[in-house]
Specification:
The protein is an alpha/beta fold. Helices cover 44% and strands 12% of the residues. It has helices at residues 3-6, 45-64, 90-98, 102-119, 135-147, 162-168, 179-185, 228-238, 252-267, 298-303, 315-323, 335-354, 368-386, 391-410, 412-416, 420-437, 454-463, 477-485, and strands at residues 10-13, 18-21, 29-34, 67-72, 151-154, 157-160, 201-206, 222-224, 241-248, 271-278, 281-283, 286-287, 331-333. Strands 4-3-9-10 form a 4-stranded parallel sheet, sandwiched between helices. The longest helix has 20 residues, at 45-64. The structure holds zinc ion. Zinc ion binds next to loops.
Length: 503
């Protein structure tokens, strides 16, 4: 029996608003699309959590034996300030402010995004398409929607006709909003806006004079609307109907709602059969936001260089911390919670390493009861992962196995009673869940309880960012050597090396 059959996957589908058994379109294969970042600024921790949640889903699907095509896009045009149809393009604005090419902005923050993903051991997707690389597909997509009567051109822009669509479809089926509520919440049209109804959204926007990013189209020079790229690229790589679409909760409306409408307006198919949404981060109970002053970056969290942080926390501590809650729950950051996660992560990884030192199992009188008890714990972890990817519950089972490992180490007689095949199975699963599914790796210990992944320092070097490591970070000799190699001076205090500033 395969793992897929043994541990049938079921999870919450945001579209049907219930937990469903997962049935892929093609047996043994999964197509998954996740909305990627808009690359105009540094990745924030909320992004990290979202992409980590889908990393677990990607990893677990593969662990079960599915062949997965995972598409995660890079938004490099069309996302306007304010997330609606008004205002400047976020990337063009950054390019204007820094007096550089929009594509320099895109490259810089795409590189930064990839570095951060690597530090947190988040696997790259199978395909990472960009919006600017798919303008032809987007223009073709719009033409079909116009042909089907769900969009109209006005003065060089093309808008999706929400009311017309809603006559035969249900706009709001994903977010649970109805069109009357949307009407009362919509601002009146401004003079610059050409759409005939405030509910409508742009598929293509005319480039006004001075607009930095624009391309030719049947409607003149312009650029695609933000929602369009995901419809066009998911269709191109996964088909008009595919298995899973994911993203952060904040994208449900209008972005994902618009995507479904565009897909149906184009091909009469709604795209994904299953929608998964990850939840937000809070800090000490308050929503994490730049305006609240509590929106720290991944680097700040690792280096401890933020007023709300007592010290820095290693990438694996942060990863473990995030996995201790279910992806659909809010997750609250606090120093206490991070410190507890640090201890927990170390305890788990210590038993992971202790396995190598255990005596052989099954050399005495075998206890069927104790053997099956052990096997049941690992089975429970897998049942929990197959139940809406519940990493929090699975980790609790891993801790039970971890305690057993400690007992076997302290008292090898206990291990002689465990059937050797069972023991091998449990250990292999335990290791595989930790390394392959949860993606936890042992971090280099330097002195005391201090550690930093080499990649983290590398990121700071790449970004030429100032990094004040807290005193808890004693840099290892290897990292010191690396820093010297690339010509970065460590600022020493009191002749010693208590403060490390990369200039
Ligand atoms: Zn998207």
């Amino acid at each position: 029996m395969s793992l897929i059959e043994q541990y049938p996957l079921h999870f919450y589908n945001s579209l049907s608003k219930q937990k469903e058994v997962f049935k892929p379109l093609v047996e043994g294969r999964v197509g998954m699309y996740v909305c990627g970042p808009t690359v105009y600024s540094d990745v924030h921790l909320g992004n990290v959590r979202t992409f980590l949640s889908f990393d677990i889903i990607f990893r677990y699907l593969k662990f079960l034996g599915y062949k997965v095509r995972y598409v995660r896009n890079i938004t490099d045009v069309g996302h306007l300030v304010g997330d609606a149809d008004e205002g400047e393009d976020k990337i063009a604005k950054k390019a204007r402010l820094e007096a550089i090419e929009p594509m320099e902005v895109v490259q810089k923050y795409t590189n930064g995004f990839h570095d951060v993903m690597q530090i947190f051991n988040i696997q790259p997707p199978s395909i990472e398409p960009t919006a600017t690389g798919h303008l032809i597909e987007q223009i073709e997509f719009i033409k079909k929607i116009i042909d089907n009567g769900f969009a109209y051109e006005k003065d060089g822009s093309v808008y999706f006709n929400v009311r017309k669509y809603n006559d035969t479809h249900q706009y709001g089926e994903l977010s649970g909003r109805n069109i009357d509520d949307m009407i009362s919440n919509t601002r009146a049209l401004t003079g610059q806006d050409q759409k005939s109804d405030p509910l409508d959204f742009a598929l293509w926007k005319k480039a006004e004079a001075g607009h930095l990013m624009h391309w030719p189209s049947p409607w003149g020079q312009g650029f695609p609307g933000w929602h369009l790229e995901c419809s066009a690229m998911s269709t191109k790589y996964l088909g008009e109907t595919f298995d899973i679409h994911g993203g952060g909760m904040d994208l449900k409306f209008p972005h994902h709602e618009a995507e479904i409408a565009q897909n149906k307006g184009c091909s009469h198919h709604g795209g994904a059969n299953y929608w998964i949404h990850g939840n937000m981060l809070t800090v000490n109970g308050r929503k994490m936001a730049k305006s609240e002053g509590n929106g720290f970056t991944p680097e700040e969290l690792i280096t401890g260089n933020h007023k709300l942080l007592e010290r820095g926390y290693s990438p694996m501590t942060v990863r473990f911390f995030m996995l201790q809650s279910h992806y659909a729950s809010t997750l609250d950051f606090s120093n206490e919670a991070l410190q507890a996660a640090e201890k927990g992560c170390k305890r788990l990884m210590a038993s992971f390493q202790l396995i190598e030192k255990l005596a052989p199992a099954g050399t005495g009188k075998i206890s069927e009861e104790k053997s099956s008890e052990l096997k049941n714990i690992v089975n429970q972890a897998l049942l929990d992962l197959s139940d809406d990817f519940n990493t929090a519950k699975a980790i609790a089972s891993l801790f039970e196995i971890s305690s057993k490992i400690n007992i076997y180490y302290q008292n090898p007689a206990e291990l002689t009673e465990i059937d050797s095949d069972t023991f091998e199975y449990v250990i292999n699963m335990f290791k595989s869940i930790i390394a392959d599914v949860l993606g936890l790796v042992a971090e280099n210990e330097s002195s005391g309880n201090n550690h930093l992944l080499d990649g983290t320092v590398q990121l700071l070097i790449n970004l030429r960012k100032e990094a004040k490591f807290s005193k808890n970070y004693a840099l290892s000799d290897k990292i010191r050597d690396d820093l010297k190699t690339v010509g970065i001076q460590l600022k020493d205090e009191k002749g010693g090396e208590t403060s490390y500033t990369i200039d």
